[in-house]
C-alpha cells in the first residue's frame, strides 16, 4: 500500500471547488478568445490566399466604373454583373507583358428572369483561352467542353455530373464540378462556354429577347496572366494607359491591402487578448499565493515527512497545470462553438468568404491554444511554487501557526 | 548513534536576539528514550527541529553515526528524514483533504526507492491506535484525541530509527494517554526505536531513561528521583 503525490494534487484541486473553478475559468476566457481570434485570422489568410489564387489571374480588367463591384466579388464573393466592349480583349492581348488573356461574361438569372433554375450566377468563359476555371475541376474533363454543356460550382448540391436542366430556355448538361472554395461567386456559379448563349432566350414582362443579341459584343471581365518578366503592377499600368475606361486590378495588391486592413483590426483584438492573458496570469498568481500561504504548514509538514523541494514544486505546478489544461480545453471548445454559432456574423463583419482552417491548421491552432493555456496556469503558479519550495520546513510549519 | 554537539540557534526579533538554543549537546544511544521538559518558549521545539533536520543550527553539529546531518544536501536531508526520522508534532498535523489512511501513508509518497518493505503496515498501525473503523474518515470527522492517535500511528510508518515527539499526548484523555504510552514503549523496547520526547507528563517521564531540562535555550541533564 502506498500513496502518491498526484493523488494529493488531485485532492487539493477538489478542496476549494469554486476557487479551482475560478482559476480554470480565467484560463478558459483567455483560451476561448485566443482560439477564436487566431482561427479567424487564419481563416482570413486562407480565404485571401485562396480567393486570389483561385482567380488564377495576375490582373483582372473590368469597366472602370465597376471597380468597386469587381472588388466586392473578389473579396466578399458577392456575384455582380457589369459589361464592357468585347473588342478590348484583343487590344489587351497586344499589350507588352501580357501572356494569356481570357474573357468572362457574367449573367445573373434573376435579372434575366430564368424560370427553371431560380437565382443563379452564370459565367460565360472562353474554353480555348481559359486558364482560370478548368484547372480547378475536381476531375478533369474527358473531352473539351461543348456549347450547352456546363461546369458547376460546389454549393449547388441538387445537381451532379450528368444532370441537366433548363437555362434561358435551353437544356444544359453538367459535365464537371469545381472544387469548393468558400467564395460565393465561384461556388454558386454555373460556367458555360460563351458560345452557349447563342439562341438562348429570356422571357420578361416586356416579351422575349434573345440574350445573345444583347450581349453579343460585351464582356464582363478580362483575366490576364502576365509574363513572368513583367511585374503585374507594370502591366496593369500599361493596360490602363492604352485603353480608355478600364480598370486593371492587380490581385497581389488586393490581397495586400485587405490583409493590411483586416490585420490591423485583428491585431488590436489580439493585443486585447494579450492584455487579458497577462491579467489572468497575475490573477491566478495572486490566487496561488493565497493557496500556498494557506497551506504553508501542510507544505512544511510534507517536507518534514520527506518531501524534497522538487516534490513541493511539482505538487503546486501539477495543480495549476491540471486546472489550466481543463480551462484551456473548455475555452477552446467554447471558442469553436462561438465561431460556429456566429459564423454568419463573423463573415459579414470581416467581409471575407469565411472558412474554417484546414484540418491540419485547426489541429495546430488547438494545440497552440492548449499550450498557451497550460503556460498561463503554470507561469502564474511558478513564483508561489518556487517560494514555497525554498522555505525551510520548520519556518513553514511555524509560519502556518 | 546520535551525537549533538554545541548546537546554537539565535533568532533576531526586532533589535533583540533570542538565544532559542544555547550550546546544547548530548549523546543518544540506540533504544534510548529521552525526555526534555521546560517552560514554553525555552527552545524545546527549536532543538527538536534542529535534530530532525527541519531547521539549520547557527553552529554545532548533529551526527547520526558518521553522518553529519547538516552537511547533507537538501535532497539528501529530505531522504534522511523520510527514511530514518519521524515526528509527532505539537500541533494537529493531519492533512485535511486526505483520509486517515492516506495521511498515515503520506511518508511513503516520498520514498521512491525499493526499501518500502521495511515500512509498517498502515492498517495494522491504525488498528493498534484504535482507529480500525476510521481508515476512510477525514481528519475533520475525528476528535482531537483521535487525530493525535492517527499522528502517532504515522510516526511509526517508515519504521524510523528515531521519533521526535513534541508534546505528543497533549490532548489525550488519561486512558488513551496510557495506551499510547504503552504503544510507544513497546515500539521502543521491541523495535528499538529511539524516542526524544518533549513533555511535562510525569508518567512519560517515568518511562524515559534520560531526562533533560531546558531553560532559556540552555539544556541541562536532570536526575529523576
Ligand atoms: N522562527 C522563529 N522566529 C523567531 N523566533 C522564534 C522562532 N522560532 C522560535 N522562536 C523563539 O525562540 C524561542 C524558543 O521557541 P520554541 O523552540 O518554540 O520553544 P518551546 O518549544 O520550548 O516552547 C521563543 O522565544 C520563540 O519565540
Ligand atoms: Mg514548543
What labels would you give this structure?
heterodimer; A: 401 residues; alpha+beta; 2 domains; nine-stranded mixed β-sheet; 13 strands; 16% strand; elongated; B: 225 residues; alpha/beta; Rossmann fold; six-stranded mixed β-sheet; four-stranded antiparallel β-sheet; 32% helix; globular; binds adenosine-5'-diphosphate; binds magnesium ion
Structure commentary:
The complex is a heterodimer of chains A (401) and B (225). Chain A is α+β, with helices and mostly antiparallel strands and 401 residues long. Chain A folds into 2 domains: 5-50 and 257-399, no CATH class; 54-250, no CATH class. Chain A contains 13 helices and 13 strands. Chain A has helices spanning 5-15, 17-55, 67-76, 88-93, 184-187, 211-215, 232-242, 251-294, 296-304, 309-341, 343-350, 359-390, 393-399; strands at 59-63, 84-85, 98-108, 121-125, 149-152, 164-167, 170-177, 189-193, 201-204, 207-210, 218-219, 221-226, 246-250. In chain A, the strands form 3 sheets. Chain A has a 9-stranded mixed sheet, with helices on both faces. Chain A has a two-stranded antiparallel ribbon with strand order 2-11. In chain A, strand 6 (164-167) and strand 7 form a beta hairpin. Mean pLDDT of chain A is 84; it is low at 110-116. In chain B, strand 4 and strand 5 form a beta hairpin. Chain B has a domain at 2-94 and 159-221: Rossmann fold. The two termini of chain B are 27 Å apart. The longest helix of chain B is centred in the C-terminal third of the chain and has 17 residues, at 174-190. Chain B is an alpha/beta fold and 225 residues long. Chain B is 32% helix and 28% strand. Chain B is built from 7 helices and 10 strands. Residues 11, 13, 18, 20, 38, 40-46 of chain B line the site of adenosine-5'-diphosphate.
List the helices and strands and how they pair.
The complex is a heterodimer of chains A (401) and B (225).
Chain A: H1 5-15, H2 17-55, E1 59-63, H3 67-76, E2 84-85, H4 88-93, E3 98-108, E4 121-125, E5 149-152, E6 164-167, E7 170-177, H5 184-187, E8 189-193, E9 201-204, E10 207-210, H6 211-215, E11 218-219, E12 221-226, H7 232-242, E13 246-250, H8 251-294, H9 296-304, H10 309-341, H11 343-350, H12 359-390, H13 393-399
Parallel strand pairs in A: 4-8, 5-7
Antiparallel strand pairs in A: 1-12, 1-13, 2-11, 3-4, 3-12, 5-8, 6-7, 9-10
Chain B: E1 2-13, E2 16-28, E3 33-38, H1 44-51, E4 59-64, E5 67-68, H2 74-84, E6 85-88, H3 100-109, H4 122-128, H5 144-156, E7 162-166, H6 174-190, E8 194-198, H7 202-207, E9 210-215, E10 218-221
Parallel strand pairs in B: 3-8, 3-9, 6-7, 7-8
Antiparallel strand pairs in B: 1-2, 1-4, 4-5, 9-10
Helix pairs in contact in B: 3-5, 4-5
The structure holds adenosine-5'-diphosphate and magnesium ion.
Adenosine-5'-diphosphate (ADP) binds at residues 11, 13, 18, 20, 38, 40-46 of chain B.
Amino acid at each position: 500500500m502506498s500513496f502518491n503525490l498526484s493523488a494529493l494534487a488531485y485532492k487539493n484541486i477538489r478542496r476549494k471547488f469554486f476557487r479551482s473553478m475560478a482559476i480554470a475559468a480565467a484560463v478558459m476566457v483567455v483560451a476561448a478568445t485566443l482560439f477564436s481570434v487566431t482561427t479567424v485570422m487564419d481563416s482570413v489568410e486562407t480565404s485571401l490566399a485562396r480567393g486570389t489564387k483561385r482567380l488564377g489571374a495576375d490582373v483582372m480588367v473590368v469597366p472602370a466604373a465597376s471597380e468597386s463591384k469587381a472588388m466586392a466579388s473578389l473579396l466578399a464573393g458577392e456575384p455582380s454583373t457589369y459589361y464592357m466592349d468585347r473588342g478590348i480583349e484583343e487590344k489587351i492581348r497586344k499589350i507588352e507583358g501580357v501572356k494569356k488573356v481570357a474573357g468572362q461574361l457574367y449573367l445573373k438569372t434573376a435579372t434575366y428572369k430564368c424560370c427553371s433554375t431560380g437565382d443563379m450566377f452564370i459565367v460565360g468563359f472562353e474554353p480555348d483561352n481559359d486558364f482560370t476555371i478548368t484547372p480547378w475541376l475536381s476531375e478533369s474533363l474527358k473531352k473539351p467542353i461543348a456549347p450547352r454543356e456546363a461546369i458547376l460550382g460546389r454549393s449547388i448540391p441538387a445537381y451532379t455530373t450528368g444532370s441537366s436542366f433548363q437555362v434561358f430556355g435551353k437544356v444544359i448538361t453538367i459535365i464537371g464540378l469545381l472544387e469548393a472554395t468558400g467564395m460565393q461567386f465561384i461556388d454558386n456559379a454555373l460556367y458555360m462556354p460563351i458560345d452557349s448563349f447563342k439562341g438562348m432566350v429570356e422571357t420578361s414582362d416586356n416579351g422575349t429577347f434573345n440574350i445573345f443579341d444583347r450581349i453579343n459584343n460585351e464582356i464582363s471581365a478580362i483575366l490576364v496572366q502576365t509574363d513572368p518578366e513583367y511585374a503585374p503592377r507594370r502591366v496593369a499600368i500599361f493596360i490602363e494607359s492604352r485603353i480608355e475606361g478600364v480598370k486593371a486590378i492587380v490581385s497581389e495588391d488586393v490581397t495586400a491591402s485587405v490583409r493590411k486592413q483586416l490585420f490591423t483590426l485583428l491585431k488590436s483584438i489580439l493585443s486585447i487578448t494579450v492584455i487579458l492573458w497577462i491579467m489572468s496570469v497575475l490573477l491566478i498568481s495572486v490566487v496561488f499565493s493565497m493557496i500556498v500561504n494557506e497551506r504553508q504548514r501542510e507544505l512544511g509538514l510534507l517536507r518534514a515527512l520527506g518531501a524534497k523541494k522538487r516534490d513541493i514544486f511539482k505538487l503546486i505546478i501539477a495543480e495549476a497545470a491540471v486546472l489550466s489544461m481543463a480551462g484551456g480545453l473548455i475555452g477552446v471548445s467554447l471558442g469553436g462553438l462561438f465561431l460556429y454559432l456566429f459564423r454568419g456574423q463573423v463573415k459579414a463583419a470581416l467581409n471575407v468568404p469565411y472558412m474554417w482552417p484546414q484540418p491540419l491548421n485547426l489541429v495546430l491552432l488547438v494545440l497552440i491554444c492548449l499550450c498557451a493555456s497550460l503556460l498561463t496556469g503554470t507561469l502564474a503558479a511558478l513564483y508561489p511554487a518556487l517560494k514555497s519550495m525554498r522555505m525551510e520546513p520548520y519556518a513553514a510549519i511555524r509560519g502556518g501557526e | 548513534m546520535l551525537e549533538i554537539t554545541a548546537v546554537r540557534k539565535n533568532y533576531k526579533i526586532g533589535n533583540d536576539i533570542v538565544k532559542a538554543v544555547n550550546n546544547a549537546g548530548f549523546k543518544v544511544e540506540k533504544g534510548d528514550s529521552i525526555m526534555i521538559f521546560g517552560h514554553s518558549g525555552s527552545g524545546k521545539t527549536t532543538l527538536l527541529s534542529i535534530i530532525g533536520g527541519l531547521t539549520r543550527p547557527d553552529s554545532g553539529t548533529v551526527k547520526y553515526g558518521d553522518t553529519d546531518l547538516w552537511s547533507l544536501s537538501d535532497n539528501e536531508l529530505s531522504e534522511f528524514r523520510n527514511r530514518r526520522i519521524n515526528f509527532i508534532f505539537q500541533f494537529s498535523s493531519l492533512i485535511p483533504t486526505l483520509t486517515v489512511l492516506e495521511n498515515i501513508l503520506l511518508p511513503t509518497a516520498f520514498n521512491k526507492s525499493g526499501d518500502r518493505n521495511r515500512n509498517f503496515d498502515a492498517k495494522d498501525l491504525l488498528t493498534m491506535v484504535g482507529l480500525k473503523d476510521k481508515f476512510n474518515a477525514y481528519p475533520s470527522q475525528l476528535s482531537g484525541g483521535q487525530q493525535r492517535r492517527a499522528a502517532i500511528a504515522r510516526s511509526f510508518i517508515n519504521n524510523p530509527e528515531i521519533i521526535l515527539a513534541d508534546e505528543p499526548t497533549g490532548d489525550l484523555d488519561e486512558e488513551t494517554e496510557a495506551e499510547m504510552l504503552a504503544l510507544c514503549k513497546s515500539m521502543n523496547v521491541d523495535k528499538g526505536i529511539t524516542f526524544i520526547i518533549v513533555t511535562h507528563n510525569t508518567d512519560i517521564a517515568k518511562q524515559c531513561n534520560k531526562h533533560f531540562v531546558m531553560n532559556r535555550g540552555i539544556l541541562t541533564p536532570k536526575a529523576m528521583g
